[in-house]
Amino acid sequence: MSERQSIHGQWSNRLVFILAATGSAVGLGNIWKFPYIAGENGGGTFVLVYLVCIALIGIPIMMAEIMLGRRGKQSPINTMATLASEEGKSNGWAALGWMGVVAGFLILSYYSVIAGWAMSYVFRTGSGMFTGATADGVSSIFSDLVSDPEKLIAWHTIFMVLTMVVVSRGVKAGLEKAVTFLMPLLFALLLLVLGYSMTTGYFSQGLEFLFTPGEITGKAILIAMGHAFFTLSLGMGAIMVYGSYLPKTTSITQASLWVAFADTAVALIAGMAIFPIVFANGLEPGAGPGLIFKTLPIAFGHMEGGILIGVMFFLLVVFAAWTSAISLIEPAVAYMVENKGYKRVYSSVLIGIVTWFVGLGSVFSFNIWADKTWSIPFLFEDKNFFDTLDYLTANIMLPLGGLFIAIFAGWLMRKQASTEELNTLPVIYKVWLFLVKFVTPVAVIIVFLKAVSVI
After folding, report:
1. pLDDT tens digits along 291-331
2. Residue 181: CB partners within 8 Å, gap ≥ 6?
3. Which of 196, 389, 433, 438 falls 20 to 30 Å from 167 in CA-CA distance?
4. For residue 43, what are the β-bridge partners?
5. Domain count, the chain
6. Residue 412: CATH number of its domain
7. Which pTM value belongs to this model?
8. Is residue 132 in some structural domain?
9. Do the domain assignments include residue 387?
10. Strand 374-376 relative to strand 380-383: parallel, antiparallel, unpaired?
11. Whole-angstrom Cα distance, residue 434 to residue 392?
């Protein structure tokens, strides 16, 4: 088979791809969710179980998704149609690509709204709004923000414009330049906040919260399995389309291991950075999403140098969201360029505007539509627009996407094709094939059944 070439270009080298894929994987969940669920579900024991789950679920599917992307060299929709045709399978497999593209589009529509909150908090913190504020005062500031649709729309718009600007410039001038600038900055900001945490006098307590071995329950194992899958941005087309820009000479195995390592490292360092601040200020470590917007601002408002530390922290959150956002919109933009013949700039603006428009539903979920709810029989009842999109994408579309990626790569793709793409040691290939055929699909099915409350 003559090697395909992506019409969109390719990454300059392996490091750029690792930065891009890590940028896609590192998001809001790494900053607050992983540290929180680790501390609440067995500490060090949970972290160990989570790492095993990354190895058994996350890395095999990531390798499969990158492999399919590089093999197809197109948007996820066209890649799956092409590869299915090559293997003599139904062109219905293009639906896998469609599901990923739609999931990414829907996720970005509400992700942009949350990222807008973080952007507004950069300026709120910088202006000294939280200085000396009480818990009620901080809560009131947050309530005032989310109850004002005009402010939310403004921040949502700014974030979507920033995302469209990067994507419209293409692989080398847009995506590559953005990640090579943003990711090192993100790591630097994270390390600066970590450095501050070491001076609080509660650093050891933070480490103890995260890493002390504790009792591990069946529920905690399921949580670890679920987060290991979701944290690497699998099943939504982002990793597949990034894989389509990967040079043939780059090792998929090595790149996947580096991305998994970097993503996990960010989550652990974030925990080590956040929880000493939480404990030093007598705050509640189990505050979940509220930890970012309702709890930490209290700490920033009372600590020495809190304005600077707070601004850096919320910039960190914005950068993490931004690098994820450009990967979420890229599959849809790539499809428009390939199938409609549109210029990339036009495609980016068009998809961005539609995404922005759908995002208005999430904006209104916190204010004028707060009482409007939806129900889907056997799945959920009385969820607002924002929660409905979150549930459908995270609990239905992404696990199914990951499951079918594993099935196609492990069971339907010829060994000659997969060995050619992975180009790794025979023993590593055999381990990957065993995991992606037998272990990973079962694990993802369990994650899916837990997510829809069947188990």
Report:
1. 789 888 999 998 889 999 999 999 999 999 999 999 999 99
2. none
3. 389
4. 213
5. 1
6. 1.10.4160
7. 0.95
8. yes
9. yes
10. antiparallel
11. 30
